[in-house]
Amino acid sequence: MIAKRIIPCLDVKDGKVVKGTNFVGLRTVGDPVELATMYSKNGADELIFLDISATHEGRDTVVDMVKKTAENVFVPFTVGGGVKSIDDVTRLLQAGADKVAMNSAAVKDPNLVTQSSARFGAQCTVVAIDAKKVEDGTWHVIVNGGRIDTGLDAVEWAKEVERRGAGEILLTSVDADGTKDGFDLSLTKAIVEAVRIPVIASGGCGKLEHFPEVFQKTNVSAALAASIFHDGIFTIQEVKECCMNQGVSIREIGLY
């Protein structure tokens, strides 16, 4: 059985790690390089670094920050935010990222997913999908940091990016983000069952039991959290012990 992954996320704005609720009300929680280094040493299976304001503000991801972060961590590392072209993907991989996540630009030009996968491989190509439930009970893809509803069905979009060569989906529930009420199980289950590639569940984790719950009730490959780690509410060790106690296959700290 493939071990489930626990992934801290570093949302960065203006060079600092921030966190909010439903993508707004951001507060500063620390330095990205310091936090990434700590999580790498303390048992994170992977890290995700997102420059959350890059697309909205029309600027590139801060490559220098990516380089510094990558130099200090020893686990796989995904970078996203402001990725608009295959040249952006190239620069981020050269800066030290193991994978590159694309969101708004992939919606605007789905061929970017195809190009990235063809040039660098599916294993380097992650599509981030931010989804919000709408009146008819389905989910729409939201872009530009949670600001714009594209009207695109999230499940159908997940299927398309898989067809285009994405190797992984980073799925964030806009409704659950920052609420600490638990992962969006309905959304996660719908996406996981629609594709064959790994899916990372993101948004809403606030208790230890939320981790084993999402693994037991969906076939998601990884679970991501930010606030509970940044605020020191739980450690990665505590999360992994909770999962193991619930029978979830998880990689023990130190076995890397």
From TrEMBL:
Keywords: Amino-acid biosynthesis, Cytoplasm, Histidine biosynthesis, Lyase. It comes from the Bacteria. The active site is at residues 11, 130. It catalyses: 5-[(5-phospho-1-deoxy-D-ribulos-1-ylimino)methylamino]-1-(5-phospho-beta-D-ribosyl)imidazole-4-carboxamide + L-glutamine = D-erythro-1-(imidazol-4-yl)glycerol 3-phosphate + 5-amino-1-(5-phospho-beta-D-ribosyl)imidazole-4-carboxamide + L-glutamate + H(+). InterPro entries: Aldolase_TIM (IPR013785), His_biosynth (IPR006062), HisF (IPR004651), IGPS_HisA/HisF (IPR050064), RibuloseP-bd_barrel (IPR011060). It is found in: Cytoplasm. GO terms for biological process: L-histidine biosynthetic process. Gene3D superfamilies: Aldolase class I (3.20.20.70). Its EC number is 4.3.2.10. GO terms for cellular component: cytoplasm. GO terms for molecular function: imidazoleglycerol-phosphate synthase activity; lyase activity. Pathway: Amino-acid biosynthesis; L-histidine biosynthesis; L-histidine from 5-phospho-alpha-D-ribose 1-diphosphate: step 5/9. IGPS catalyzes the conversion of PRFAR and glutamine to IGP, AICAR and glutamate. The HisF subunit catalyzes the cyclization activity that produces IGP and AICAR from PRFAR using the ammonia provided by the HisH subunit. Heterodimer of HisH and HisF. Belongs to the HisA/HisF family. This is Imidazole glycerol phosphate synthase subunit HisF. It comes from Heyndrickxia ginsengihumi.
